[in-house]
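Assemble and predict.
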Amino acid sequence: MTTYAIGDIQGCYYAFQALLERIQFNQKKDQLWLVGDLINRGSGSLEVLRWCYQHQNSLSVVLGNHDLHALVVAEGIVSAHKGDTLDALLAAHDCDILLHWLRHQPLAYQSEKFLMVHAGFLPQWNANQAIAYAKEVEAALQSSNYLHFLTHMYGNVPIAWHEDLTGIDRLRMITNAMTRLRICTAQGEMEFKFKGELADIPKGYMPWFDVPNRATQSNNVIFGHWSALGLQQRKHVFALDTGCLWGGKLTAMNVHTLAIVQVDSHPLDKPVKLKK
Ligand SMILES: [Mn+2]
């Protein structure tokens, strides 16, 4: 049995299938860890989500910001954004089943040797706390009152963690960190506008994983979300979003050997531009 962690797929179904072929994925033996953002922006969101649903016994998934966005759009809470490619998914006969499955996926995952999250963890959170906080959001997402959470999920505040945060502010804070975080201050104050490369990080900020004395610094953390960061394999830090959607590559990491396998982006994964 081999376990592979795979970076942001974002509806790039052809690249995903090529990667599975390259690693000779065997659904009877192998396991896949997907870092989230399974869907949106690429042309194959429906196909990727159907594949994941059909192979759910071989998968561990964490939710990304685009996955949550699909849930919010499907409920009519916000309109689709320019560049979203969710129409086929939202019109599909099995949309409800697929999105129900998606809504029941976790925000963070812990194995014996790794933590996995879509974006990042705040510096104050140790592994046990991070998993517990993720479960608070998962409980809200899976409750009968999940529309309340989805309705109030968006927003950039609060920017910093306090253990005494309660209610929707607390859930939004946890969700923002785990699905949107790239950079923060040494105190863990988050910034959401920056999406660029390491060299261009604004003064006073740093990658969340470089905050000194981060409580998860001795844990192996696998994450995605930051395509401009590119592949990173540092001590305990494994960034796997290699921008397949943007003409980069789709990356798999064998979690036993840390070996990397990549495939090029596929032209058919680019969304078809509709004429005006
Ligand atoms: Mn993302």
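The helical segments are 13-22, 45-54, 65-74, 87-91, 95-103, 127-142, 146-152, 167-180.
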